[in-house]
Amino acid sequence: MPINYNEPLIMHIDLNSAYAMIEQQANPLIRNKPVAIAAYDTPRGMIIASSYEAKAKGIKLGINVSEARLIDPNVIILTPDPEKYFDAHRRFKKVLTNYTNDVTPKSIDEFVVDFRGSNVIQGKKSMQTIGMQIKQEIKQALGEYVTVNIGVGTNRFLAKTAAGLNKPDGIDTITGKNLRSIYSKLRLIDLTGINTGYQARLRAAGIYTPIQFLDTPAHILKRQVFNSIIGYYWYIRLRGHEIDNVDTKTKSFGQQYALRQRTRDRQELSRLLMKLCEKTGRRLRRHNYTASGVHLMLRFEDYKYYAQGRKQKSDMFATYDIFKAAQRLLDKAIIHSKVTSMQITVFNLHSQEYCQQDMFDNTRLDRRSLALATDDINDRYGEFTLVPALMANMQNTILKRVPFGSIRDI
Q1: Number of C-alpha atoms within 13 angstroms, CB side, residue 4?
Q2: What are the tens digits of pLDDT across the range 201-235?
Q3: Which of 224, 226, 284, 392 has the highest CB neighbour count under 10 A?
Q4: Which residues of the chain, if any, have pLDDT below 70?
């Protein structure tokens, strides 16, 4: 498959240090100062966002409040203000929908905009000109202190990659013509979707740079590197062809685990359940969905099984919410013999675009922000780098990792 040389008409836009910058916009007294947003302002509260001034000092997501204060005693710690962020999200989206209806929110602070077929493009304006115009309109809508990064490409992957090239307040375009030049300046880990696990897999196959990644044949990526269709998807993605906007019409997400050591111990079953809920939750969040139903199935060594599901009154997004609902089902189960396998499924999926308002009450925003921050760390450094306390020391189940918090903090 050749590189895509079509005109780049996909735009990725994200607010720079969104939560922190929105707070700095609202309060001029904390502008140009290190600001960190924490899920809780207690010493163990996790940092979920930080301003560029804080990042420059090493105060980044994943550390806790006490660690942030050790780095800089003068850091300004704030807790999330849901209504403020949701209002910014609405204003942000309104600016973009003035250009085209094909606007997809990826999170509260980032959007993908597809300009194919847009009247703006038919008016012969360049994407660079449109991008600069959008930057100004966002300042008018959200405030003069707010900046965004804009990336333009022939697919979503390249647009997001371009958006990360020159932060903050950058605007860059990746085309079929400059694609190789851009890749030559990046590391594998700089590519969106490549975590340390994938990087290790690529290196094991002799692929050390994005250019080598680009030049590797599809059948090698599929059969030898990733050992799945994922390899072919990367082959397409790297060449600028779209693969990430495919609507698979997913009805549910789930995970199943066959126990290496069969057990009737409810505490151990809860720990295994948390692992499955975490993996399921990450998939749910990665695809930008919430769910309002959960189903649990247990298989026993006597070949009998327990299966129970229920719908929830509100949408689930964070691992904590999924686990809480699944644990209720587990509590009802009669464990008459040792469990051989466990399966968790979430259903009744909803795009986050249609459930943002309900998601952003105080408690839900804290859990949502913490879930996204944890996902970001685990995507970057490998699955289960950060885990809930309940999953700590799960011998023969997952690798030993650094646990955080307690269950009520998730």
Answers
A1: 22
A2: 999 999 999 999 999 999 999 999 998 888 999 99
A3: 284
A4: 122-124, 246-250, 352-410
* DSSP assignment letter at 209: S
Query: What pLDDT does residue 121 have?
Result: 72
pLDDT on residue 390:
53
Query: Which residues partner with 172 through β-bridges?
Result: 151
Q: How far is CA 255 from the centre of its chain?
A: 19
* Backbone region of residue 249 per phi and psi (left: phi > 0; alpha: psi in -120 to 50; beta: other values): left
The one-letter amino acid code at 56 reads A
- Kindly report the backbone phi and psi dihedral angles of residue 119, in degrees, each rounded to the nearest multiple of 5, phi listed first: -65, -25
To the nearest 10°, report the CA torsion of 178, 184, 187, 193.
30
Q: Cα–Cα distance between 138 and 22 in angstroms, integer?
A: 12
**Which residues lie closer than 8 Å to 36 by C-beta, 6 or more apart?**
20, 47, 49, 50, 51, 54, 59, 65, 68, 75, 76, 77, 78
Residue that the structure tokens 């997952």 belong to: 398
